[in-house]
Amino acid sequence: MNPNALNTTAADDSSQRLERLTHTAQRMLERAQQLGASQAEVSCNEDSGLEVNVRLGEVETVQSSRDRGLAITVYFGQRRGSASTADLAEGSIEATVAQACAIARYTEDDPAAGLADPAALASVFPDLDTWHPAAPDADAALELALACEQAGRDADARISNSDGAGVSSNTSLSVYANSHGFIGAERSSSHSLSCALIAGHGDGMQRNGWYSAALAFADLWTPQSVGRTAAERTVERLQPRSLATGQMPVLFAPEVARSLMAHFVAAISGGSLYRKSSFLLDSVGQRLFPDWFAIEELPLLPRGWRSTAFDGEGVATANSRLVDDGVLQRYVLSSYSARKLGLRSTGNAGGVHNLQVRANAGNLEQMAAQMGNGLLVTELMGQGVNAVTGDYSRGAAGFLVENGQIGHAVDEVTIAGNLRQMYQRIVAVGNDVDPRSSVQIGSVLIDQMTVAGDD
């Protein structure tokens, strides 16, 4: 894609804006201490962006946004109070700090409350290449969206309608500071180009689409590539069939395979564990996956979607194995959840950062050949996952695989199993990684699940 399609040469004032946010955070911390707080932490952010949408060659929406916010949490011993505002005027900041302090005075002691351990806070802040702003230009963005949609509509005569195309460009500045003396500033950008199309007529219509996303605008697919891919995926969905209910292998395409990892991370996260609402309680040291399987967390990955030198509490992050040789190495903990469990923070306040799942197989077509006969899932519907038991049941659509070849479209089926058993029955992870997510994972083949259809 032409990097000059959006203006990337405009003056970059992000450093000055971060300095202003830092100064505001320091003032709030000082005021909290003057009001008697024993500890305090402040988060400040400024976000801006442009989003345009077109449909059938006409402009539908053009939206420019600029948001900012401040949030402060104060501690009076182990009593905690929080307040936030989007108004950076001096009077509003003063009132926000005072409100947080007033709330804290009326809350109960919480033995797990408090800032992160000072010794765990980050002191090194490498450049992780997450800042690639593109100054919003509505006319140029609309031109790209229109070209994307037109390429999709022209790609195949069976494309009968459009749900539109869109371009977005966003930047975010943030500062976290606390009364231990920690100050961390970050800036990031993200851009996307998408297209959704409709093929067929009447009851036989099918909808599908595609999108490209990247931290740097120049890394996006061309609008023609996105439009043509959206058309191909939509046409492939025509004349779907159901399946007979039974047991069969299931191959998850990369864009849906990452949801399997999302369920896993939720189950090993501190909040689920100390509330005892996880099917993976007391699982550190247990073999949860096949012995070749590994998941690495890479918070220091250059140009990663969730790269950061520190978590939401200022705790230093580090590249580490979450799963090694199929064995869970650690949980995902903030300082609060770690204290509730009698453990130490893993630098995951705010979530995980850039998971990378080890591959042991080729691309989607090669994995379909390896599977032989089964179901390729390209879309999941519903939220049928029980976090306490691990029971899994979701609506699905995709394609039947016969004799290693991807065949006709399939919809109106349900796939079911238990996540603990599903993880153990993973036989292959592909190298066809979907780069549009912080979870870097290829296709995933599970050797047996229950597939329920209408036939």
What distinguishing features does this structure have?
alpha+beta, Metalloprtase-TldD/E_cen_dom, 35% strand, PmbA/TldD fold, five-stranded mixed beta barrel, six-stranded antiparallel beta sheet, 9 helices, TldD/PmbA_sf, 17 strands, Peptidase PmbA, 455 residues
CATH topology of the largest domain: PmbA/TldD fold
How would you describe the oligomerization state of the chains in this entry? single chain
**Number of discrete helical segments:** 9
Order of helices and strands: HEEEHHEEEHEHHEEEHEHEEEHEEE
Number of domains: 2
CATH class of the largest domain: Alpha Beta
Low-confidence stretches: none
Helix content: 10-25%
Main sheet specs? 6 strands, antiparallel
Strand content: 25-35%
The CATH superfamily of the largest domain is identified as: PmbA/TldD superfamily
Strands in their spatial order, largest beta sheet: 3-2-1-4-5-6
Report the principal-axis shape: globular
Overall mean pLDDT: 95
Radius of gyration from the CA trace? 24 Å
Structural class: alpha+beta
Measured distance between first and last alpha carbons: 45 Å
